Amino acid sequence: MNPWLCVGVLAGLLSSPLHAVSDKDGDGVPDFKDACPGTPVGNTVEANGCSIPVSAPAPVCLMTSQMNPYPSSCHQGEILSIYFDFGSAFVPFEAAAKLAWLAKSIETDHVSLLLQGHTDDIGTEAANYRLSAERADNVAASLAMDFAIPKARITTASFGESMPVAPNNTEIGRQQNRRVDILILVE
What we know:
It is a single chain. By secondary structure, this protein is α+β, with helices and mostly antiparallel strands. It has helices at 3-15, 95-106, 125-147, 171-177; strands spanning 62-63, 69-70, 80-83, 111-117, 154-158, 179-186. It is elongated, with a radius of gyration of 27 Å. A four-stranded mixed beta sheet has the order 3-6-4-5.
């Protein structure tokens, strides 16, 4: 067989679609597999072509600075805490999901936030006070810059090592004490 003929046949095969697959709604799922034809453009879909439901954030149910649940419809609030590595004031990447949830949850509420910085008991009292202030300030900056919470709605406080939530005689306890607690200030 003529080698030029082989190249021509091969080029023709490669340039023409062997199996034309239709995807009329453009969701990336072929029509013959699409259980939900007509999915709106831009929707994220499952393998069957149906939209993945976008869930709303769970309602906020946090503690106020007076240790009451907020909003009043909550029976029990929680203190939202951001945890830090030893000696660090860098807001961990994992905290972004919590902060995003918080920002979305309070975006229509007329409340402010109180950020209380804490440390474990390793180091001097003065150094721990400064570190806890820096942690609170960094969480405040993240909320303002990354999640559009106005700075006027954020207050910070530094407590150093004075308010542990766990014993400081184990690494696990010290890790629980290296934190910023976020409380609601109702206006």
